[in-house]
Queue: 3 jobs
Job 1
Amino acid sequence: IGWFGVLMIPTLLTATSVFIIAFIAAPPVDIDGIREPVSGSLLYGNNIISGAIVPTSAAIGLHFYPIWEAASVDEWLYNGGPYELIVLHFLLGVACYMGREWELSFRLGMRPWIAVAYSAPVAAATAVFLIYPIGQGSFSDGMPLGISGTFNFMIVFQAEHNILMHPFHMLGVAGVFGGSLFSAMHGSLVTSSLIRETTENESANEGYRFGQEEETYNIVA
């Protein structure tokens, strides 16, 4: 398991468990800190599309808000405590997953690029769940954990910051679509040059053994 696994397993289990429970049954949250709670759970009138874990109240700001800091569990739920709990455990968990990818690659004598590639979505999640709320001064500005909540976050972000006109965002979009295109082109080219090593009765994966010296594809095909 490794030390990364020791930390990853409890953090991701905690984040997942609280997310499921809160998505189903959490009471409305006073996200704006103005005593107008917003419901996000299934039992309070939402469906799979409209449901979400509503971000922690603006009244809490960036304060660390574990259960024991509230006067009661009801107060903790009203102020959106589950959101902060889920996000912080989730970010720690995925960071450990990335470290685990590196550790396993290292122990197998592989290069570290799997973990490096995974660092991109980790950075994106950290940006919307932690960096942006810090910049705005409140976890209430973080992205809600739901489908409609994600779209709402995108619309508000565009309205407040005009992100679509930012050159770095343009480069990011071009990079994502360009990367997808080049991955498809590269993968299809390499796959089409494979030398058949198996019959119809066995998996194509049997045609390669990790560490084998002979080639499995024809570079001039």
Job 2
Amino acid sequence: MTQAALSIDVAPDTLIADSVKASLFAKVTDDIAAYAIIDGQWCEDIYGRLLGEEHTNWCSLIAGELAQELALTAPYLVRLEQDSDLTNWLIEEGWGKGWGIYFLASKSKAKELYRTPPPESLKQQVERGAFVASPDISEDEATDVVLLRRHFRRYLRVEFESDGRLVRFRFFDPAVLRVWLLSTNPSETQAFFGPITDFIAEDWCEEPSLCNAQQLWHFAAPAAGEHCKTNRFNMGTRQLTPMTPITESSTQTNERPKSHITLIRKAQEKVFEDMQWELFIAKIAHDLLKAKALPQIGVTTFAGAQDFARDQVKEAIANGVETVGELNEYLKQTY
């Protein structure tokens, strides 16, 4: 049956969900399994849902004294089974809402990379309430979910090169993951992938006007010394678009000695700042179009509204505007 025929008989949301699941489970083997990291801040039901799962391995990425306190809003690492109720719910209900990211990982490579036991055993962590997880994995240090948790916990905090600040790194946000993997150099990319073979993320960000639930981003593990291969796939048109790394950042080396804290280089900081800037511009453009404030000057498209908003914000800054409140007043007075 052709894609055109399918589109007549099947709802668009079903087509998207089926495409996501096909992309996620196509490469699953005895060694390669599918997983997700789901953010409790965006998916408010995830903790309660996981507590009701009897045959699913999962754990919180948060450790220590905050593990119990942040149980409702923590990021959760979950092993996914094809066509399970949990998998179907996450993809059918959550895709397009920024709930988290999906990935494939090699269980054998995870065991190889993290074969040295951690300083504190799982049993000790559980006894003091520092480990929130499904009951059946709490006594096995070599469970794949536990090993992957050790891998990803290395990235929960990062340091800004510009001022030394330590901040929480939300790499499990689809928008952050995209920018991060397009801005890393080969060495950083290799380290971040570790036992991961593929990442899959939606084309989501906090500005709804910039989101496209039909777009799927795929990042494949890189060969040594190379960037990961990145493609953006439109599940509606079936068009595959190769994406290139951000040159200014991805070609820059990290001169700092190896540390347990990941460094966000100055060039990467700028990439993330640019992302926030474009989100800000998009919100203004969306508000201007919604208020029907632009047709009189010949602007009727979202792209045109973005260009207009970008120019006006730059002009406002040049005129001494410093805060968002001042900017809103400036735009109201001007239009």
Job 3
Amino acid sequence: MTRGFSESAFGHAITAAGVTHSVARACAAGRLYNCSCGMVRGKRAWKWSGCHDNTKFGARYSRRFLDVRERAKDVISFTHLYNNEVGRKVVRRNREVRCKCHGMSGSCEVRTCWKAAPDFRRVGDMLKEKYTRAMSAAVEVFGNSANTARKYRPVRREISPDSPLLFVERSPTYCERDTRLAVVGTTGRYCNRNSTGPDSCDTLCCGRGYDQRHEVVNRKCQCRFKWCCEVTCKDCFEEKWVSVCK
């Protein structure tokens, strides 16, 4: 998270989005004493009812909680602050209208509607898409001169949900061990030989192949709750074949 890789950009963005989302929902649910329901702008706001998720307060809290650590005016700090704000904007600008019907026998004679923060799975998908299209900060913002970052701070109004994530350093392959970058590599990683997704042996093992190994796994089973308040379990041993990257 302290480096300028595109993975760091995604990590900062989704962390900021997560804080914004959680605080906004907590405000609407009345779980926080210092905030309340969110507001909806516009002449037709009087038609709204229910309690809107307070994404404005959530974003403000996220800035106070996360951005305060980024004081140094260098290109790394700039991109961290920028990516934080992209994550918040994705939550704030993608609020959804949700409604609840009231009436006899399930009829919808009266309907209560409110603005809710998007499902966080959707937020994650949008940020994942931005991760795949991340751009170099030096080219996108500073015109190939990273030193000019010392003159800039991210301007919130210029960042939109459509803004890309920014990175400073090209990501390593993560396939081979690199102690300088704290990359452990994928040798010895468990993989799924029957998968075609990111956990597949073809993907994780980086073309090196994998070994099949027989292991005995200890797992908790037959758990019982004892009043009060203890859970006791037995140890069960399971034999299985696993795939491990070479």
